[in-house]
UniProtKB/TrEMBL annotation:
The active site is at H137 (proton donor/acceptor), C194 (acyl-thioester intermediate). GO terms for molecular function: hydrolase activity. It holds the Pfam family Sortase. This is Class D sortase. Residues 56-75 have a biased composition (Basic and acidic residues). Keywords: Hydrolase. Residues 56-79 are annotated as: Disordered. Coiled coil: none annotated. InterPro entries: Sortase, Sortase_D, Sortase_D_1, Sortase_dom-sf. The keyword Cell membrane does not apply. The keyword Zinc does not apply.
Length: 220
């Protein structure tokens, strides 16, 4: 008899624990449904009826903005539509320090150098990016070039406009040195003549002015 009563009390206790757990699960479910499901259902309904703005939607539901197409920079017009002919007068070299205005002839052979300052045909035209190379005789157009040094200005006038360069470096190199005509990353003017200036005969060296473009005034 005692064993039967003990078993009944044990079963009742198990049933009470099971009912308590069941009630707890139901209460948790009701709370979750009341706190989350209703807002979700309301938001879904408003979204379907187009009453929700894009900013009110959860972040993961926003449509990613489309990237704007970048416009390519407009290509600048070339300064020169055609190159001058060899032997043609293509402009002037102005050296304020010497109060000198010298004609520039396209080409650097003896015929061109007899007429003025020669423009090395393998280099770019004045004002263009890269290295513009001008040469002249030390006993004619560049007799006083040794007076020009770092910080002085050199101005070139052509059909494209007026280009002012500032001397940044003076070099004295061997006459066979070819570095004076190497390409440059920006608009550069290289002016060269024989050196020493008072040397009798074929001078063994070269006097070099290297200048950067600092100002330009293009012709309209």
């Amino acid at each position: 008899m005692r064993a039967a009563n003990k078993n009944r009390r044990g079963n009742s206790r198990k049933q009470w624990i099971l009912l308590s757990l069941t009630a707890a699960v139901i209460l948790i479910g009701v709370w979750v449904a009341s706190s989350n499901f209703y807002p979700f259902l309301k938001g879904y309904f408003l979204y379907k009826t187009e009453q929700v703005k894009a900013d009110d939607l959860p972040k993961e539901e926003k449509t990613p903005p489309q990237e704007e197409e970048k416009e390519e920079p407009a290509k600048s017009e070339p300064l020169y539509t055609e190159m001058p002919a060899v032997g043609e007068n293509m402009g002037e070299l102005i050296i304020p320090k010497l109060d000198a205005v010298l004609p520039i002839i396209h080409g650097t052979d003896e015929d061109e150098l007899e007429k003025g300052v020669g423009h090395f045909a393998g280099s770019v035209m004045p004002g263009e990016n890269d290295n513009t190379v001008l040469s002249g005789h030390r006993d004619t157009v560049f007799r006083r070039l040794g007076e020009v040094g770092k910080g002085d200005l050199l101005t070139v006038k052509t059909s494209a406009g007026e280009f002012t360069y500032k001397v940044k470096r003076v070099r004295i190199v061997d006459k066979d040195d070819r570095t004076v005509i190497v390409p440059k990353p920006k608009a550069t003017l290289t002016v060269t003549t024989c050196y020493p200036f008072n040397y009798i005969g074929d001078a063994p060296r070269r006097y070099i002015l290297v200048a950067d473009l600092v100002e330009e005034e293009l012709n309209s």
